[in-house]
Specification:
about 290 residues, alpha/beta, nine-stranded mixed beta sheet, 7 helices, 9 strands, globular
Length: about 290
């Protein structure tokens, strides 16, 4: 059962009168590998219009870039050179979603140049990122900003290699997150492009993570997006078809009322950030619902 992909209405690309803001946050972490090298990193933080005018706290969406990117990639830096900020501003103004905080970190760090071009190296970074996320980034965000705490108030999503990071956060951080948005990327925990090359073993890995975390189907929500005209479609779609067979863990539907997985395929959709923003527009209205 596929969820119909909806294109973004043109007015959502326009500047919004009641616009949010972007700022950069710095935090200390380490590489969480054998070196355990101390490093300094940063993330961009989107704050919705009206933030700080009261003590109201907000849900938080952590959003990861694709391969070769950085913390500026998705928003286009503090200058908001991409379409995402306008889309979020308008979604909030039109009450399509509640005001929320969006955080865009990076799984790269200064000095890891090989990972920018070598998939194996990048995979190791995405597989390690959950340590930094839980131990350093989330505490920083929740200390400095009016962020709601608890897994039901946190979502994690990512595009391309960021989707691989998202599947890993799903497997390792079900105690910290309820909502997940993997966009144009399969899970590489078992093998690079494991969604296509070893789908059974890959989905076994995800199911074992659910069991280990002691979670039931109502405890997590996954909105999966991909375009059928991009390089990620075959690996991700193959993995999704295997997930469909595991009804004890993954119940597919058009919404989250009686299911915990939504699968949305953009017909003709390409492997580009343009579609990443469209997937976010499709998915966010389904997150942070009671």
């Amino acid at each position: 059962m596929l969820k119909k992909f909806l294109d973004v209405d043109k007015e959502y690309y326009q500047s919004c009168k009641n616009a949010g803001t972007l700022q950069r946050i710095y935090y200390s972490t380490n590489t969480y590998d054998e070196e355990a090298k101390r490093i300094e990193k940063n993330a961009l933080v989107y704050l919705p219009y009206g933030y700080g005018k009261s003590e109201e706290a907000y849900d938080v969406f952590y959003l990861m870039h694709g391969g070769g990117g950085n913390s500026d990639e998705i928003f286009g830096g503090l200058e908001a050179k991409t379409d995402l900020k306008n889309i979020l501003d308008n979604m909030i103004e039109q009450k399509l979603i509640k005001p929320l905080i969006v955080v865009t970190p990076s799984f790269y760090y200064e000095g890891c140049t090989d990972a920018l071009t070598v998939r194996k190296e990048a995979k190791e970074l995405t597989q390690n990122f959950h340590h930094e996320l839980v131990n350093n980034l989330i505490p920083t965000i929740e200390s400095f900003f009016l962020a709601k705490t608890g897994r039901e108030h946190r979502a994690f999503g990512g595009y391309s290699m960021g989707a691989e990071a998202t599947w890993n956060v799903f497997a390792k951080c079900l105690d910290e997150f309820k909502y997940f948005l993997p966009m144009s990327g399969d899970c590489w925990a078992v093998k690079i492009q494991g969604g296509e090359l070893c789908p059974k073993e890959t989905v076994d890995y995800l199911e074992n993570a659910i069991v280990k975390a002691g979670k039931a189907t109502e405890d997590y929500r996954i909105f999966i997006c991909v375009g059928d005209n991009g390089v990620a479609y075959q690996p991700l779609n193959t993995m999704v078809q295997e997930m469909r067979l595991r009804k004890q863990s993954f119940v597919f539907g058009q919404g989250f009322q009686n299911s915990n997985v939504i699968y949305c395929v953009a017909e003709g959709g390409e492997h580009t950030y343009e579609y990443c923003y469209k997937y976010i527009w499709n998915a966010l209205p389904y997150f942070f619902k009671k």
